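Format notes (please read before filing issues)

Several people have asked whether sequences and structure tokens are stored in separate files. They are not. Every record keeps both together, in the order shown below: the sequence lines, then the token lines. Line labels are part of the format and must not be stripped during preprocessing.
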Amino acid sequence: MKDVTRKLEVSLGPDTSDLDLRTGIHSGQVTAGVLRGQRSRFQLFGDTMNTAGRMESSGERGRIQISQVTADLLMEAGLARWVIPRSTRMFVKGKGKMQTYWLRKSNRSTTPKSAYLKSGMGTLDEEAETEGSSERTEDDADEMEELSKTERLVEWNVEVLASLLEQIVGSRGGVVNQIQTLSKAENSIGTSGTTVLEEFTPVIPLKRFDAEELEHRQRTADVDVGEEAKYQLKHYVSTISAMYPDNAFHNFEHASHVTASVKKLLARIVNIDERNGLAASIPSDSMDLVDLAGHSYGITSDPLTQFTVVFSALIHDVDHPGVPNTQLVKEKSRWAQLYKKSIAEQKSVDIAWDMLMSDEYAALRACIYETEDELRRFRQLVVNTVMATDIVDKELQALRKSRWETAFSNGDSAAGQLDFKVESEDRKATIVIEHLIQASDVSHTMQHWYIYKKWNERFFMECYGAYRGGRAESDPSKNWYQGEVGFFDFYVIPLAKKLQSCGVFGVSSQEYLNYATANRDEWVREGEALVEQYVAKFNAQKTSSDSSP
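Then the structure lines:
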């Protein structure tokens, strides 16, 4: 199962390798038959099936629990080494207390039985006898698994960005031009003495396509960005992954998780908007070229916009310090003195941008933009998108709220004027993109309870670790439970409602809102006990770490 989910993570993205199976086995007689009715199907019945179901439901993820009867059969077959008795008798509904067993795990790679026989390596039974001879420790195995996970996430991010690069190049007719003439413009960005935050603008003019441009747009299947650009893209993403510290929460896996949410929301815009210019089945002369993207406000009509939002998600926490901006100000760090506010966010933009502008990524940049206008739009989108991830600064939050109300107010007295309409669409697109990245940054709160609990624990561990390490004044465990309730009530749920009210994201907005509400209710029920578990787990890990040589 793990082999399958790890392979799927390359194509399906973060959290895929967290999928697992819980299996139960019991042995005995069964009754089999086909049930009549509208959904006729073959089924197994009887006490044996019920007991097997109890073995599964009382087991653990990633393990196979077997009954005493099944264990006895294995022992009689000379396979006693395959079973491990559970330390306590399990209470099984309808059965009372039962002695159950785990099937022993094998750490070797899965190889078909025929391969062992043909290779002269012996039978699977003989191979099982040597399972314990490996000198690799569990810590070594975890380290290797984590390394391979990072590599899988790199591959997935590269695949996502490469497909968007192909759309950009396809929108230019499949041609990649040299950009040496833009070197002066590239060098001027970010070097004028202003900070990243000072570059923020409330309205970003998005690209509008005319009929001639649409006629020359190539299908992505026919586009080749070139081997050099592909190599540089992978090298860039790999380097970015290495620049993420080993924080419990703000790490490369988190960045990939945010990227996956951005990709999902963008895809939902594309799916519900059939006039966005990317739907090859619709002839260009049937499109409204003034309002090309309809209710998506132009977000999906320009592949560069989509690429930039995904790119921004990937880099938004590069070199994150593992503590909030307020702590960096208190510590009077060099970065705090330079940026004053939104410190971590501005640093991430500067680091990732400076690296992208180096000579070794010239071919990659040529795919992203080919004119100074595209370069500056790319930069502005990166700045606005990453800066939106600072959700703690009250002044910035108030500004976004005001801009949302302005963009989506119903008082468009000049709605019939073309110039005003274009500016209004750009204003809406700009603020929608910012809320898209904000929702993605906390998307774990709007997903399945298991996902939310996983990332909530990681964030707690990061904050609690900072406190125990002397980098936070207050103990987060004292207010974590109530703080999460407030976070849902005053940020997450209102944000999900905004996604719904803007009319862009289709069913995703309702899905996010439903999960947010359900997770809030579940947290109210279980949150206090979970915080106690978090603290106990941190202390156990700390004790183990301190006692290690």
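For reference, the curators noted about this record: The beta strands are 23-25, 31-35, 41-45, 64-66, 83-85, 90-92, 96-98, 101-103. The radius of gyration is 27 Å.
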